[in-house]
Amino acid sequence: MIYLIFIIFGLLPSIIWLLFYLRKDVHPESNAMVLKIFFYGMLAAIIAALVEIGASIFLTFLTAPIAKTFLYFLFSEFIVIALVEECSKFLIVRQKVISHPEFDEPIDAMLYMIIVALGFAAFENTLVLFSSFFSSESILVAGINNIIKDAIFISSLRFLGATFLHALASGVVGYFLALSFLKHQKRLNLTIRGLGLAAFLHGLFNISIIVFEGGVRDQNLILSCSTVAFLIIFLSVLAFFVSKGFAKLKKISSVCKINE
Which residue, among 194, 132, 217, 205, has the nearest Cα to 162 in the 3D structure? Predict the structure, then answer.
C-alpha cells in the first residue's frame, strides 16, 4: 500500500503537467507515442543518474584537493548534473522521435521534449518520495494518514518546482531544436545554444534550491523568503517565454523533418 502511494504521488505531478501541455498541440499525437516517449523519459532519468554518480566519483577522486571549492560546486551543478540531464532528455528525442512519422510539425519538437522531461521528472519524483521516507525511521512509526499527508506535501512541492522546471528547461531545448530544422545551416549552433541555455537555467534552479534549504536549516528567514521570491519570478518568466515559443511555432505551418 505504501509503495503504491509513493508511485501514485510520484507520477501525479508529471501527469498533470502532461495533460496541460498536450492541449498545446492542435494536431494531437497518438496516446501510444506519448506513453512510449514518457517512459523513455523515465529511462533517461536512470541513465542520467548513473552518469552523474560515475562522473562525481571520478571527478572527486581526480580533483580531491579542490572537491570542496566553490568552482567545483558550480561545475558539478551546471555540468555534471544540469547538462547531463538536459542532454539525456535531448538524446531520447533525437533517437526515438525526430525520425518518426508522427513528428511532422515544428511544435512537436517542444512537445516531445516536454513529454520526455515529464517522464524524467516522474521517475525522479518517485525516487525522492521513496528515499525521503526509507532514509529515516519515519516509515516505521508514521501512520498511513501521515504518510499520505507527507507524500502530498512533497508531491505538491515537486509539482510547482522540479517537475515544472524539467518541463520548461526541455521546452527551451525543444524550441531551439525546432528552429534548427527551419534553419539548416545553423542546426548545430542552435541545438548547442538550446542545450547550453537549458543547462544554465536548470543549474541556476538547483543552486537556488540549495540556497533555500540552507536558509531553512540555518533559520534564516530573509534568505529563505528571498530565494522563494526569486524562484517564483524565475519560473514565471521562464513559463512565459516557453508559452511564447509554443505560440510562435504554432504559426509555422510547414512540415519539418530531419534530413539524415
Answer: 205
Q: Dihedral of CA 210/227/166/176: which sign?
A: negative
DSSP string for 129-197: HHHHHHTSSHHHH--HHHHHHHHHHHHHHHHHTHHHHHHHHHHHHHHHHHHHHH-GGGHHHHHHHHHHH
Q: Is residue 260 a part of any domain in this protein?
A: no
Q: Specify the pTM.
A: 0.91
pLDDT tens per residue, range 106-141 = 899 999 999 999 999 999 999 999 887 766 555 555
In tens, the pLDDT along 235-255 reads 999 999 999 999 999 888 554
Phi/psi for 180 (5° steps) reads: -65, -30
Range of the domain at 189: 2-250
Q: Is 126 contained in some domain?
A: yes
- Structural domain count, the chain: 1
Amino acid at 139: I
Let me know: does 166 contact 88? Beta carbons within 8 Å: no
CB 18 within 8 A of CB 118: yes
